[in-house]
Amino acid sequence: NGVIVAPSADLDLALRGVAFGAMGTAGQRCTTTRRLFVHDSIHDAFVARLKAAYASVAVGNPLEGDVLVGPLIDRAAFEAMQAGLAAARDAGGVVHGGTRVGEGASYYVRPALVEMPGQVGPVLEETFAPILYVMRYDDLDAAIRRHNAVAAGLSSAIFTRDLTEAERFLAASDCGIANVNLGTSGAEIGGAFGGEKETGGGRESGSDAWRQYMRRATNTVNYSDALPLAQGVSFEI
């Protein structure tokens, strides 16, 4: 799941949306934000704020009111996360976070923000853990092509106040869910939920929840005394 942050974005809104999408549920959600593309003109300032959020977020027992990030499900999840971070380092990434918090039977881990030189290695795979890969972009169409150049296609988002950019993204995002100024995590209950490519398999919720029980018919009612013909056919007698 990828997010694009454009130069015109409300950066306060984008920061909250990206942080929740990437760190909420300890990254163990099918709609968790995995990749982030930030425009060159705002990259350094925005990523600095994001790093600060990652460093300050509370990790621990999620039953406590001030804790936002709970545990990974088990040791295997922790080891998979560490393997993904090692692969990111090998590919030239700079890792912030990702370390284990505390000891014992539970696996509490600080969410990891990884600055990547490009979309390579583990960025092309989904590690079901709180890892966010951050990359720069300078051209929206190129960013959308990179966004689409992965095998999965469930949820996506763009933060922008430019209507043209928003429409270009909605038309081009190769995902079942495409949002504007809203993160990837979760789904609107009134809309259909499902993905494309390797995330395919149909839709559920929204109108799709009941359409599978229906037989569809197309009805046209003509209230005029003329005879309109399909495809503009002219037939006069």
Outline the structure in words.
- The chain is of the alpha/beta class.
- The protein has a single domain (2-210), classed as Aldehyde Dehydrogenase, Chain A, domain 2 (3-Layer(aba) Sandwich).
- Helices cover 29% and strands 17% of the residues.
- Strands 3-6-7-2-1-9-10 form a 7-stranded mixed sheet, with helices on both faces. It has a two-stranded antiparallel sheet with strand order 4-5.
- Helix 4 (140-148) runs parallel beside helix 5 (163-172).
The CATH topology: Aldehyde Dehydrogenase, Chain A, domain 2
Q: What global shape is seen?
A: elongated
Average pLDDT, to the nearest integer? 93
Question: Which band does the percent of strand residues land in?
Answer: 15-25%
The largest sheet, given as strand count, sense and whether it forms a barrel, is: 7 strands, mixed
CATH architecture assignment name = 3-Layer(aba) Sandwich
Largest sheet, order of strands side by side? 3-6-7-2-1-9-10
Tell me roughly what share of residues is in helical segments. 25-40%
Helix/strand structural class: alpha/beta
* SSE run: EHEHHEEEEEHEEHEEH
Number of separate domains? 1
- What is Rg? 22 Å
CATH superfamily: Aldehyde Dehydrogenase, Chain A, domain 2
Quickly count the helices: 6
Terminal Cα separation, in Å? 59 Å
- The total strand number stands at 11
CATH class: Alpha Beta
Uncertain parts: none
Summarize the structure.
With 237 residues, the chain is of the alpha/beta class. The protein has helices at residues 11-23, 40-56, 75-90, 140-148, 163-172, 208-211, and strands at residues 2-5, 35-39, 94-97, 100-101, 108-109, 112-115, 131-137, 152-153, 155-159, 177-180, 196-197.
